[in-house]
Amino acid sequence: MNSFMPFFSSCTLILLCSCGARVQVLDHGISTELMDEVEKMTKEHYKRVREQRFLEFASKTLEGGGGAAENLDWESTFFVRHLPEANIAEIPDLDDDYRRVMKQFAAELERLAERLLDLLCENLGLEKGYLTRAFRGSKGVPTFGTKVSSYPPCPRPDLVKGLRAHTDAGGIILLFQDDCVGGLQLLKDGEWVDVPPTRHSIVVNLGDQLEVITNGRYKSVLHRVVAQADGNRMSIASFYNPASDAVIFPAPALAEAAGGAYPRFVFEDYMKLYVRHKFDDKEPRFEAFKSMESQSTKLIATA
What we know:
- The chain is built from eight helices and 13 strands.
- The chain has helices spanning 32-63, 65-69, 96-124, 130-134, 208-213, 252-258, 267-277, 283-302; strands at residues 12-16, 22-26, 76-83, 143-151, 163-166, 172-177, 184-188, 191-194, 202-206, 223-225, 233-241, 247-248, 265-266.
- Keywords: Ethylene biosynthesis, Fruit ripening, Iron, Metal-binding, Oxidoreductase, Signal, Vitamin C.
- One of its GO terms (molecular function) is 1-aminocyclopropane-1-carboxylate oxidase activity.
């Protein structure tokens, strides 16, 4: 992963790579002024619009005790879609300045995601642009959206998780997180490891689709958010994912070298399974599609 180094030169970028290690490289190219503006407006928006709603939810959750909280996450979220069609103009309670700043930030993150995908191609020996093309589907554009989350102080972090452990379903995920309040952890060698908040950093996480396309050369990383008793943690996670109709399969050059360990499927079909089993292990999801692929092959052979 050291080949990332020559491409960046100031600000910290953290990559959660196949071994679960953190690799710091420099200069993600997004201005710190823009990041500060995004952070300021996001925290103001939560305080003005979402805090009271969350407090009402939190009160009911904790009244129910441990059983009620077991399958819930201690977070307040909203989602913004950028591609294939933006919906930010339709989201209520966002003022015009916040919409403008979020659109600008999303454009910067989209460019960063595509640069990083090309760097992954270089590391893997794939043709430049292979991964971005694999994501584009019939309309020539990926799916790209942002989850804006707040993790308020939790009086009973022993009862509820900030966000339960999971791998991300999609492609490459770019996270701008609070630089004062921690809580993000990844699983490495069977142990949960903190991802410390670092000012003006972007955390890069790889999802299940890149594990499949790279035939396991890169692994999606199991991660979680631990609820904190103090501080309100901000998290802005942008997901650069395949188009809904993109056909996902191991890159032939990588499958030939290591054997086809992963299935072939349509991304939308994977997402339908993922939403039902997000907090379960990823391997049964892969196995389910391998089984379907095998059955289809047998039917064709006997037809």
